[in-house]
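User: Please predict the structure of the protein below. I'd like the answer in structure-token form so I can feed it into my own downstream comparison script.

Assistant: Understood. Taking the following sequence of 112 residues as input:
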Amino acid sequence: MCPNRYVWFDALTNYVSGVNATDPDDPLSSFWPCDCHIIGKDIIRFHCIYWHAMLLSAGLKVPECVFSHGFISAADGRKMSKSFGNVIDPHDMLDKCERRTVSSCHVISFHS
């Protein structure tokens, strides 16, 4: 079990408050609930169990679907992560490649 589950409670509520989901008069509330919640595979439990339980207990709608993607691996085989310090700055990629190439790379990584 994750000893810091309370951190997720605070983090996940930002999705609701960020679009003022509980205020139907706010134009941002039209973004709630989302059609597809896109997450990394290592946080499925938090987004599919805890998050849905929190929403249902508050009487709020849950996302239509949750899509979990795999990781993009670095040259050494480890997942790319800010914690590991092995991420690629997208601005550096744009300096070397065309915008369309960089965009295609992201789409391909989500569908492979």
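That's the full token string. Residues 1-70 form one domain.
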